[in-house]
Amino acid sequence: AANDAEALRMLEEHEDICLMLLDMDMPSVNGTELLESLNADNAYNNLHTVIMSEQDYQGNVAEGLQLGIIDYIKKPIDLDVLKANIDIKAKIFEKQALLQKRYKEAGIIFETIYMQVPVGISVYFEDYPYTGKSGGGRYYYNPEYLRILGRTEEELLELGWEAYTHPDDLEKDLKNFEKLKSGEIDSYFIEKRMFRADGSPIWVQILVAAIDLPEPCAFSYITILQDIDDQKTISTELFESERSKSVLLSNLNGMAYRCAYDSNWTMEFVSTGCHALCGCDPERLIGNKDCSFDELIAPEYREQLWQEWEIALRDKTQFQSEYEIIDFNGKRKWVMELGEGVFDEEGGIEALEGIIIDISARKEAENKLVYVSEHHWTGLYNLHHLEKMLKKDLSTEKRAHSALISANLNPMYSLTVKYGMQYSQHLTAKIAAALTKLTNEQRVLFATASHRFVFYLKVYENKDELVDFCNEISVILKSFLDMERINFGIGVYEIDEATVDDVEGLFYAIRLASEEALASEDEKGNIYFYDEELEKRVYRGNLMRHELASVAEGEDQDRILLQYQPIVDLRDKQISGFEALARFDSKGLGRILPLEFIPIAEETKDIIPIGKVIIQKACGFLKRLQANGYDDLNVSINISPIQLISEKFVESVVEILAQMDVNPKSISFEVTESVFSANFDRINAVIGQLRDHGIKSSIDDFGTAYSSLSRLRELNVNFIKMDRPFISRINKMDQEATITNDIISMAHKIGLFVVAEGVEEAHQLEYLKLYGCDKAQGFLISKPMDEDVAIEFLRCWGKSSCIQQKQNI
Taking 80 as the threshold, does the pLDDT of residue 562 lie above it? Predict the structure, then answer.
């Protein structure tokens, strides 16, 4: 370039020029101004200048360096020297350019690693000189560091790493950090917990190392941070699993194992529980050293165990089995084995792994439970076992004639009441032992309840054989029960094809047969074969139970009907009242008398609500009598002992009378004499409460069952009603021989009125009048009548239509 302007133009056109030769003596170039101009422009920072002059510039080196001068050549110029000088400079610039390139590449690599490495990195450069105060330097964080902690760089700088380190780990970290700052250590490595921005803790692994930088940098360090939260969780779980496994194995009532799949079950690993289970140390079983595990298995289970393992391995399912082993000491033990196969990648069996637990105690308890569930306290099989046996036997296609024979000893409950449970059980046990002598393979004895025994005859020839066997049973029972004055019943049920699928039906039928036999009044008739007649009676009874239950629940109450039989006062021959007699109008059975349906209602306790209906209907009839002008008549109502002892019976009666506006003095209750035998004090107290309210009471059917004239003084009753047998005997016996007159006399002496029921003949009535009987009722006067007929009967009493009846009285 010939001048400054040309030089500047050429430099602009060629940006890669790095060396310029400047002749300071050229008249057209002001060298100093040119250098100053170039130095002021940053675009020429890489331009270096070698000046040439006749003058000496070496003295002002500092000024020359500032202007970009790197060398000085004095004129005149030696071209060889100049060329050598430029070659040297060119090589220096070439090396410098290479170093800059490498530096740039190194910077790029560092930037890439720093920004993209999958670990957190923070670098701290401390200001110089180090003041010892926090914040005296600068932190740099790579993106991964920020991501791991879920925080921004501003948050980290504001908080400082101490604030987001877990308090439990901070002390240890600070101690190591102080050692690092003091130069005691060059680096440290720890695991600690840090807090994310949401407050959740995270486990990290950090390496902190000091950075040795030249002056003027003071203390600086780098932190490498790695997220190990998942690893820590897995490690903790693994540790916990190992701990749990250790606890399990140490407390396992048995042993864990790994064995080969061979005929000896060759053990590869056995836990310490082997000693307690097998009676030997594990080493004696491993590798079949002293004994194979197969030898410990009870012989009868070996083949079964092998087959069960074959199935489990074939289906790749878990194995479970219970069997017995014989340990090294010869003791038999029940064990439960749980295991599974270990397979290789090709599906081949590598080994078997599992646990074997001692379940001897459980098995013993199970056997006791099974025994208890299948046996009665007498030691005989119970009803549950009979049911299982019947279901099994009756399910076979080919079976012989079979039968059930039940011995019903329910009256023995009275012995418990009289002498106590121990006495009754002792006698029951003796009877069971005696009956057991009749058993064999085809005759099995069961105790199905406290006082019931059942023989199951698996095979029998004919009915005569059953009768003979029942007689054998009867002889044994009489030998024990006759002296106790206890009756019994023997029921027989011959199992046929129609009942093989109904075991419950069999039990029901045999119970009914035994109860029918027990109820028989014929001493020779205590053996009863279940038949169609009994089945019909049972059906009839069940139907009545169902219909009576409906009445008791408040439905169909109009099916309870009352008829009324007049009672005549023998002194003035006037009708003094009526006895209300209940009838049940069954939908399926027609009209039923009380002797049949009342016992069923008492059995189900439905008599309590039904009894209220009867009292209400009787009070309704009494109101009709009063409405027709018969104010002095009363109505007597039969009351069940179940009603009398029911809760709040008296209050219920009083409430009904009040609601229907009936005078209690117009009502009397009749109770059978037998109820006083077992509940004398309680029932007598209730009758006393009724009397306090003005309601009279009488003993019905007096003279049967538990007659006791001596106790009449204690009763709170007003009347006694002599039973029919005493009246009917007047026909057959001499009047002086009958005791009917004595009963009348004794009753009068203790202040009781006497009513005779069942009067059917005129001479009976004459006898009763002769001996001062107060009142009478019976067919001689009238049969029971419906309400309308009874009221009409009252109207005609004394008129022509009833004159003969009245004259007879």
Answer: yes
